[in-house]
Design a protein that fits this description.
The protein is 38% helix and 18% strand. By secondary structure, the protein is α/β, with parallel strands linked by helices. Strand 5 and strand 6 form a beta hairpin. Bound molecules: adenosine-5'-triphosphate and the ligand Nc1nc2c(c(=O)[nH]1)N[C@H]1C(S)=C(S)[C@@H](COP(=O)(O)O)O[C@H]1N2. Ligand MTE binds next to helix 6. The site of adenosine-5'-triphosphate has 19 residues, from helix 1 and helix 2.
Length: 180
């Protein structure tokens, strides 16, 4: 296995209002803080705070994957049914190979928190060696959704040829089949 020294993790907040300064972006920093807590292998974060919209999100994801070498990009916001909520469409335009289990599981755990969880069209997909995971905009969704999918993320990154990452087992028990 070729191990890269440092994983690169993109954190993208898609929100018209947070990007215009109407309210403070809490969800983007919460994602970065989550990885600080959970990962034990070296990584750095690339943060972006952008307006909602198909092109803004698609182009940001492509830039993070292709020019910044991101192994993983986590987005927040723009997953709902409002006309400007276009993060899932933009994600599939940038990363055409969907991993449907991620969206299914995140909606399932979110339903325990709120009945409106079914309004989120959040998904995960990969662009070559870069995995993209959508989260809802609400700060309360961040840790809940990431806790649900993180056990499978390190092995997923192995399979797509991205960086090798490890989690603190006291926080997240990551699953890698034996011998991998
Ligand atoms: N990045 C964020 N940081 C903090 N709070 C947020 C964020 N995104 C959403 N929220 C909160 O969730 C509420 C509902 O968010 P909504 O789904 O309308 O956001 P959005 O469509 O992602 O963003 P916007 O409407 O600003 O473009 C917001 O009013 C705000 O209180
Ligand atoms: N865990 C969790 N999931 C959630 C929510 C939440 O508060 N917690 N909010 C829901 C709501 S109200 C909406 S409209 C959708 C989409 O939100 P977004 O457009 O900000 O991505 O996510 C849903 N999923």
């Amino acid at each position: 296995m070729t191990e890269k020294q440092e994983a690169v993790i993109g954190v993208v907040t898609a929100s018209d209002r947070a990007s215009a300064g109407v309210y403070e972006d809490i969800s983007g920093p919460a994602i970065a803080a989550y990885f600080e807590k959970v990962l034990t292998t070296p990584f750095r974060i690339e943060r972006r705070l952008i307006p909602d919209g198909f092109e803004s999100v698609r182009d940001t994801l492509i830039e993070l994957a292709d020019n910044f070498g991101c192994d993983l990009v986590v987005t927040t916001g723009g997953t709902g049914p409002s006309p400007r909520d276009l993060t899932p469409e933009a994600t599939l335009a940038a990363a055409p190979r969907e991993l449907p289990g991620f969206g299914e599981l995140m909606r399932k755990v979110s339903l325990a928190q709120t009945p409106t969880a079914i309004l989120s069209r959040q998904l995960a997909a990969h662009r070559g060696k870069c995995l993209v995971i959508n989260l809802p905009g609400k700060p309360a969704a961040i840790e809940l959704c990431l806790d649900a999918v993180m056990p499978a993320v390190p092995y997923c990154l192995d399979l797509i040829g991205a960086a090798y990452i490890e989690t603190d087992p006291a926080r997240v028990v990551a699953f890698r089949p034996k011998g991998k």
